[in-house]
Design a protein that fits this description.
Elements: E1 11-15, H1 21-29, E2 34-37, H2 40-52, E3 59-62, H3 71-74, E4 80-84, H4 87-99, E5 104-109, H5 126-133, E6 139-146, H6 154-174, E7 183-186, H7 192-197, E8 202-205, H8 207-216
Parallel strand pairs: 1-2, 1-8, 2-3, 3-4, 4-5, 5-6, 6-7
Bound molecules: pyridoxal-5'-phosphate.
Pyridoxal-5'-phosphate is lined by residues 15, 17, 38, 63-64, 188-190, 204-208.
């Protein structure tokens, strides 16, 4: 591999937000075991369709904003939340998850871009946030998630992803023996190469999976 990474270390999250449940199921049947959605309602309907088709070995990852009022219904369907970026949400997850004796794997979304429209915590807030969240029962921080600047050059994108990895490495060092921050969710269709080179373990690929399919539809 160009990035000198073991391919087994990098998993594809197939982002299904562009398609209905039928095509999402075809992707799962083709071997994509982890699917990502950015809206709770779409996750609910696809999950239901998958259950009806006995496709229950799919893992569902929430990659977009999760509203607290959608949490109770979403939590039982979720294998991982990539987009944790507020203490209020963390506390709500803790409350709901402990009530059903679950521990939800979460990634903390961080924003290293200059793009104020982007979601995610500012890097300066990350250490205090992790310190607070790690004390909550019912969720377990497994790493970080990030998006690169919209119009960044390849070099800038790579630099931003390197910053995410560095932030993860620093946290891992601070919490060695307490947290296992093995996941870095970064990279999409347009920039997964830079992300993998910088250490991504989960790449969230949407449009390039569906290009041919949607053009034909
Ligand atoms: C849509 C989306 C993706 C996939 O992006 P593509 O450019 O379509 O590959 C990845 N991450 C998040 C958070 C998304 O909303």
């Amino acid at each position: 591999m160009a990035a000198s990474r073991d391919p087994a270390e990098v998993c594809i999250v197939g982002v299904t937000k562009y398609v209905g449940p039928e095509l999402a199921l075809q992707l799962a049947q083709a071997g994509c075991r982890i699917l990502g959605e950015n809206r709770p309602q779409s996750l609910w309907s696809k999950h239901e369709y998958f259950q009806a088709h006995a496709a229950e070995d799919t893992q569902w990852h929430m990659i977009g904003h999760l509203q607290r009022n959608k949490l109770r219904r979403t939590l039982p369907l979720l294998d991982c939340l990539h987009s944790l970026d507020s203490l209020r949400l963390a506390e709500a997850i803790s409350h709901e998850a402990t009530a059903v004796a679950r521990v939800l794997p979460v990634l903390v979304e961080v924003n290293f871009t200059q793009d104020s429209s982007k979601t995610g915590l500012p890097p300066s807030a990350l250490p205090a946030f992790v310190e607070q969240v790690r004390q909550l029962p019912g969720l377990r921080i497994e790493g970080l998630m990030a998006m690169a600047s919209q119009d960044g050059s390849e070099a800038q994108t790579r630099r931003e992803f390197e910053q995410v990895r560095q932030a993860r490495d620093e946290l891992q060092q601070a919490y060695s023996g307490e947290l296992t921050l093995s996941q870095l969710s970064m990279g999409m269709s347009g920039d997964f190469r830079q992300a993998v080179a910088a250490g991504a373990t989960l790449v969230r690929i949407g449009s390039s999976l569906w290009e041919g399919v949607l053009a034909a539809a």
